[in-house]
Write a structure and sequence with these properties.
By secondary structure, the protein is mainly alpha-helical. The protein has 2 domains: about 1-80; about 100-329, MetI-like fold. The chain contains 13 helices and no strands. The chain has helices at about 1-30, 30-45, 50-60, 70-80, 95-130, 135-150, 150-165, 185-225, 225-235, 240-275, 280-290, 295-320, 325-329. Helix 2 (about 30-45) packs across helix 3, helix 5 packs antiparallel against helix 10 (about 240-275) and helix 11 (about 280-290) runs antiparallel to helix 12.
């Protein structure tokens, strides 16, 4: 098991190196005039450096004064130490801006993931147990609706219904602009949680459908297996057959979905965070993208690559946990 994990980590490290090289190439082959434009914009801000200093600083900071491979090694070594430079749009170090907003996305993603697992997997198992019943058809319809609805449409629909028409929930933002509560007070946390309801509801609606259908399909395959029929023939209770024998084997393919949920939630939250104006990593990255903030964009792409590789590694490890045969192979 240890050798398996070490091997996967080394493969992930090589893949990350290649991905970061591709990210650097994309930045490197952008027109030089873009760097000049950014330097000109930065020099026009109050109290800023002159244009020539900004141009020289940006070229040196991202290795533009070197050949492609030397420039990449220069940027890669800085990136490995956590130095991604200063954000052109937010005018602060990229890592500092990341630390400022990441926890907002983390709590949004963590709550959504927990709700998705708690809702989707039991409903998928229930639909498989009651195949072709009213319950099965109802769950299938709900799942297909969730799969079909894009996040921007779902978010807009919920805003219209619960914020504009019913006036039950806030339309956008993280806190009420009229609040006088201190940022570290319980009232402030309640206000933030109140503003998180619609974004979480949006992400849950669009994400549970796929996991429900996947769970149902795999559960049906397991329930039709010979060893399940044997377990029933021995007189085991249906509860033990489902919860002990069938569900454990259903988890084997589901861990792939669960492992991939980590980067999927962070990446998919960009649209939802932007619509609800939640100051998370998705919304911040969107502002960086539309404003040509290359340092933050390069960091965000690297961050997403790390999350994807980490999700794959977690899925591989979970495979070995739920299926001991994987460790032998």
């Amino acid at each position: 098991m240890t050798k398996f994990i070490i091997k996967r980590v080394l493969i992930s490290a090589v893949l990350l190196f290649v991905i970061m090289f591709c990210i650097y190439l994309i930045m490197r082959f952008m027109p030089n005039s873009y760097i000049e434009t950014v330097a000109r914009q930065l020099s026009q801000k109050p109290g800023s450096r002159p244009y020539t200093e900004w141009l020289a600083l940006l070229n040196v900071q991202y290795g533009m004064d070197k050949d492609v491979f030397s420039g990449f090694i220069f940027w890669f070594k800085d990136a490995m130490t956590g130095n991604f430079g200063d954000s052109w749009y937010f005018t602060v170090p990229v890592i500092d801006k990341f630390k400022e907003v990441i926890w907002n996305s983390f709590f949004l993603s963590a709550i959504t993931m927990i709700l998705e697992l708690v809702i989707a997997i039991p409903l998928g198992v229930l639909a498989a147990r009651k195949q072709y019943s009213v319950t099965d058809y109802t769950i299938t319809v709900v799942a297909l609706i969730g799969i079909s609805l894009p996040s921007f449409f779902t978010a807009s629909l919920l805003q219209y219904a619960f914020a504009l028409k019913l006036d039950w929930l806030p339309l956008s933002g993280m806190v009420d602009p009229r609040t006088t509560a201190a940022p570290d007070s319980f009232a402030y946390l309640l206000d933030v949680g109140y503003h998180y309801i619609l974004p979480i509801l949006t992400l849950v609606i669009i994400s549970i459908g796929g996991l429900m259908r996947y769970t149902r399909t795999n559960m049906l395959e397991v329930l039709n297996s010979d060893y399940i029929r044997t377990a029933r023939a021995k007189g085991l209770s249906e509860k033990r057959v489902i919860n002990y024998h069938a569900f454990r084997n259903t988890l084997i393919p589901i861990v792939t979905i669960v492992g991939g949920m980590l980067p999927g939630l962070f990446g998919g939250a960009m649209i939802t965070e932007t619509i609800f104006e939640l100051k998370g990593i998705g919304y911040t990255s969107f502002l960086a993208l539309i404003n040509g903030d290359i340092p933050f964009t390069m960091f965000y792409l690297t961050f997403m690559a790390i999350l994807t590789l980490l999700g794959t590694l977690i899925a591989d490890i979970l495979y070995a946990v739920v299926d001991p045969r994987v460790r032998v192979n």
